[in-house]
Amino acid sequence: MEANVVFHVGDRIDAYDLDGWWVDKILSKENGSGHQSVFFETTGQELDYPVLKLRVHQDWRNGKWVSSKKTKRNDVLFWASDCSDLVS
């Protein structure tokens, strides 16, 4: 939805799905096919998602979308530490 935006691992983003915007986070770099790995907080799913359906996170205030002050996620390391038992 935003042209030429580069997302980075840990960025807080919104993904357009099912007629609405969902707050998510980027888990990996763009994979060359126009998709990025996105963690959907509401469902706990990790999906490759089309970059064209992603935007920098925004908040709904007073009837309009405004830039959010929270663009980076601090819990990426926490998420990674949850997977530490998968690494031998």
Automatic annotation (TrEMBL):
Organism superkingdom: Eukaryota
Agenet domain segment(s): 5-62
Protein name: Putative Agenet domain, plant type
Organism: Rosa chinensis
